[in-house]
Design a protein that fits this description.
The complex is a heterodimer. By secondary structure, chain A is mainly alpha-helical. Chain A has 15 helices and no strands. In chain A, helix 8 packs across helix 9, helix 9 (227-237) packs across helix 11 and helix 12 packs across helix 13. By secondary structure, chain B is an alpha/beta fold. Chain B has 3 domains: 5-237, P-loop containing nucleotide triphosphate hydrolases (Rossmann fold), CATH 3.40.50; 243-340 and 426-510, P-loop containing nucleotide triphosphate hydrolases (Rossmann fold, 3-Layer(aba) Sandwich); 352-424, no CATH class. Chain B has a 6-stranded mixed β-sheet with strand order 6-9-10-3-11-12, sandwiched between helices. A 6-stranded mixed β-sheet of chain B has the order 18-21-22-15-23-24, sandwiched between helices. Classes of the chains: A mainly alpha, B alpha/beta.
Chain lengths: 376, 510
């Protein structure tokens, strides 16, 4: 990983040497394994053989072409939303409102998908994505403006905005945007020119995965090669030093939240235009919250987030298959997700203790990672 | 009398370095033992072992002859060791009384027995000649007063051994004297003191015995009465250092009194953190090529003055004119940078640099958005590398790689990096805020020489330090800041009276 490595924060990268990289990978893997282990106890308590259950899990998620297709279908929103969370976390902004920004993005996509008439694909899809991005970005931007103007805590504001977004969506889908021919709260079918095409025949896998991969590359590039990425990293690692260095903190906060929300908005847009072809109330089974776990497991690194997104997607797909075969409820997913988070935070705390002991010649405390700070 | 505390063959290793190497020391009741040593000599490690933050790899600690295991700060306090840290461990929003009893509140049933506690504390305060106002909030107190609270807290908790880490760093000469009187009063009542410092004069003034640490070893132990300054300095640095570093600093007044001022500050007022004017109607002129030393006790407006000049804090009133350009009252660090203001902050690790980021990322902190480092929002990696390597080479920043985190640099090397970055833009005004704080003698010398070089090439330098010796050594002109005003000003010469300046620092302008 050369490139702009000398710009790269050793802390966020978590490596100063190959040994550290390995250690970091091991601790993440350890967290995942520990979570799966505790999960297996719960499965056993439910009266099912954990081995059988996990076998079913793997067979369903990555054991077949269709399983892979479904895993990648779930990867799309998790990766986009996870990138959004990770980008904000890098600047030490705790954007917990990914879920709401995802709704906003879906609604933004719907404006193009429903009201602009027929569009050619080359125009319809970019326009739909742009609209989703901007809608998600503006929704997160509300929290940004409140933070910059009134120092409102973004954790609370973004979280509360989730509920507002949901009610807004609920109003639109039950009221003005409701499909007149429909039986439930959803919009009409998007126009053809805004539908993301299927790219793996025989599965539901749509072009959203390409959008997500491009977004991963772009965010990687922004973080490592641009002034904005530098400023985001510097602000996250040392806000006071950033201000001293002439970084316009307010502008960085606003831009960061806009991009973070925009990525979440893209997740919503892709779900709407790629999978459902409309907006419905259940468009996101808490992807926005899982995204936080994805960002943490991926260490706020675009490439890491991609791996973590596939992992969580496989877990979600696998566990729903597991329910069909073994009767273990799907909510196991959320338990394992929570356990992984707890173990990651735990392993980071242990790490810091070790680093602190080594640095005791110089008693300065290492700054907290977002995970630990969120704990406080 | 048997020693109250014995350290026997203490060794502590860290990866790649032996921080404490076979250290044996003893402390007797009623004794003040000074631990003298440069930064990195192992003082802090030894202290952390006593405090229970670190455990020695070898050796043992005996208290009153009994071998003790100190596993945590609680153990340490239980064994009668009271630590007064350089940064006080007080809760600013609580009162003095509340801070002292915190963690060991006297109770009557479920209630705080306030009156009883107050009585007990006032008795202790009286006994140890520690004047305090128990109901004041800690944030209202001066540094010296906070330190007294910290000491009293330790005595209240039953500490028999008091360990003070660089306790005089931000005290006035008068406050330092007051501290010394307190320490003497304590030893008369049988308490023992370990006084950690790197200031020869103070150690000689207060201690009974001196242990010099160098490179993790005890380089020598001697009675203070028999210790010569030269001998101590030699033990400390292992080479013959005559008098302080400042001895080789010649005062060469570069400034021409008639010269047009480069920087003019007129009737400046700046609000402090708690509202109120921290800088109150201040007037100041700096000419090109002079070092103006700002003496004063911490908290008399230094921070606010510096921050206003650096554009980090809005001004409430008055004017700052830099080379003919009037700055507006808004805080805008970038504007000040463009006007040629460079700033070496006292807080190296939170403001001056970001320890978690690489050396290169820190090197470009100021010019990351300027050509040739960046163009149209995209950073040029090759230029970043070249620029950083240049700074590191020019200023002899010792590092294995410019990709290492800045946090692994020693204090001196980090300061050299910051200094290199700040002067690379050829500033008109260089603000050096406590630039040598916590550095070892070698690094102090380099930093001061570099700053004088800047002066010689025509930069106006504002040099802030709470160490009067340092101000006297480096300044062409001295101003004393007290409660946001300049209360005393004089050109630096042999005739400058230390007492006069000391009095001004304490607000006693005659």
């Amino acid at each position: 990983m050369s490139g702009l490595a000398w710009l790269w924060p050793a802390k966020l990268r978590n490596t100063t040497s190959a040994r550290d990289t390995l250690r970091s990978l091991l601790s993440l893997t350890g967290a995942v394994l520990a979570a799966l282990l505790v999960g297996s106890i719960l499965i056993a308590l439910a009266g099912v053989s954990p081995l059988k259950a996990y076998e079913a899990l793997i067979a369903n998620s990555i054991g077949s072409r269709n399983g892979w297709g479904e895993t990648l279908v779930k990867t799309v929103p998790l990766l986009l939303a996870g990138l959004g969370a990770a980008f904000a976390f890098r600047a030490r902004i705790f954007n917990i409102g990914i879920e709401g920004q995802l709704y906003a993005g879906a609604l933004g996509a719907a404006i193009v998908g429903l009201f602009l008439g027929q569009l050619p694909l080359w125009l319809g899809i970019p326009l739909m994505l742009l609209s989703g991005f901007v809608a998600g970005g503006l929704w997160a931007g509300i929290a940004g403006v409140l933070k910059v103007k009134f120092k409102a805590n973004e954790i609370i504001v973004t979280l509360m905005l989730n509920y507002i977004a949901f009610e807004l969506m609920s109003y639109l889908l039950n009221g003005p945007w409701r499909d007149p021919a429909g039986t439930e709260a959803y919009t009409a079918h998007f126009v053809d020119g805004t539908i993301l095409p299927i790219i793996l025949s025989g599965t539901r896998l749509h072009a959203g995965i390409i959008v997500a991969l491009i977004a991963t590359a772009v965010i990687w590039w922004v973080i490592r090669r641009t002034v904005l990425g530098y400023q985001v990293t510097v602000t996250g690692a040392g806000e006071e030093a950033a201000r001293y260095g002439g970084v316009n903190i307010k502008r960085v906060l606003l831009t960061t939240l806009f991009i973070s929300g925009g990525l979440a908005g893209l997740a919503g847009a892709c779900e709407a235009a790629g999978l459902q072809h409309r907006v419905l109330l259940g468009i996101s089974p808490n992807y926005g919250y899982t995204a936080i776990a994805v960002a943490m497991l991926g260490r706020q690194e675009p490439l890491g987030v991609a791996v973590a997104a596939v992992f969580f997607a496989a877990l979600i797909v696998g566990v729903s298959g597991m329910q069909d075969f073994t009767g273990v409820p799907v909510s196991l997913v959320f338990i394992i997700e929570g356990l992984i988070l707890i173990f990651i935070v735990g392993s980071q705390a242990r790490r810091h203790k070790r680093v602190k002991a080594q640095k005791a010649v110089d008693v300065d405390q290492p700054p907290l990672s977002p995970a630990e700070e969120a704990q406080h | 009398m048997p020693p109250i505390l014995e350290l026997v063959h203490i060794t502590k290793r860290f990866p790649g370095v032996v921080a404490n190497n076979d250290i044996s020391l003893e402390l007797h009741p009623g004794e003040i033992l000074a631990l003298l040593g440069e930064n990195g000599a192992g003082k802090t490690t030894l202290m952390n072992i006593l405090y229970g933050l670190l455990r020695p790899d070898e050796g043992e600690i005996r208290i009153q002859g009994k071998v003790c295991k100190i596993e945590s700060p609680n153990d340490s306090l239980r064994l009668g060791i009271g630590m007064v840290h350089q940064h006080f461990m007080l809760v600013p929003t609580l009162s003095v009384l509340e801070n002292i009893v915190l963690g060991r509140e006297p109770r009557r049933g479920p209630f705080l027995a306030g009156a009883a506690a107050l009585e007990q504390i006032m008795r202790l305060a009286d006994e140890f000649e520690l004047p305090i106002s128990p109901h004041d909030k800690v944030w209202q107190l001066s540094v010296g007063e906070q330190q007294r609270v910290e000491i009293l807290k330790m005595v209240y908790r039953g500490a028999q051994i008091l360990v003070l880490d660089e306790p005089t760093t931000s005290l006035t000469p008068q406050e330092t004297n007051a501290l010394f009187n307190i320490l003497r009063a304590m030893t008369k009542r049988g308490h023992s003191v370990i006084f950690i410092s790197h200031k020869l004069d103070e150690v000689r003034a207060i201690s009974h015995r001196i242990a010099v640490l160098r490179q993790g070893r005890v380089a020598g132990t001697m009675l203070t009465a028999e210790a010569g300054e030269q001998e101590l300095a030699y033990l400390m640095v292992g080479r013959d250092v005559v008098k302080r570093v400042y001895a080789n600093t010649t005062i060469a007044p570069q400034s021409d009194a008639s010269a047009q001022p480069l920087i003019t500050v007129r009737n400046l007022s700046v609000l402090g953190r708690h509202g109120g004017k921290a800088i109150d109607g201040l007037n100041l002129q700096l000419a090109a090529g002079e070092i103006v030393g700002v003496a004063g006790v911490d908290g008399n407006g230094q921070t606010e003055l510096v921050e206003a000049l650096a554009g980090l804090r809005p001004t409430a009133n008055g004017e700052i004119i830099i080379d003919g350009h009037h700055c507006d009252s808004q805080a805008d660090p970038r504007r000040q940078m463009k006007l040629g203001v460079a700033y070496i902050p006292a807080e190296r690790k939170t403001r001056g640099a970001i320890p978690d980021l690489t050396i290169a990322a820190n090197a470009i902190l100021k010019n990351h958005n300027d050509r040739p480092i960046a163009a149209r929002g995209i950073m040029n990696q090759r230029r970043i590398r070249e620029y950083t390597q240049q700074l590191v080479a020019d200023y002899d920043v010792r590092c294995t790689s410019i990709q290492s985190p800045a946090g692994v640099l020693s204090g001196g090397n980090l300061q050299k990096l910051i200094l290199a970055r700040e002067v690379s833009a050829q500033p008109k005004l260089l603000i050096a805020e406590q630039p040598t704080r916590g550095l070892d003698i070698g690094a102090v010398e380099i930093v001061q020489q570099r700053i004088m070089q800047q002066r010689d090439r025509g930069t106006a330098v504002l040099y802030l330090s709470t160490d009067l010796d340092e101000i006297l050594a480096i300044s062409d002109r001295i101003i004393v800041l007290y409660r946001g005003k300049i209360v005393y000003e004089c050109p630096n010469s042999q005739q400058v009276s230390r007492e006069r300046i000391g009095l001004a620092m304490a607000g006693k302008a005659a």
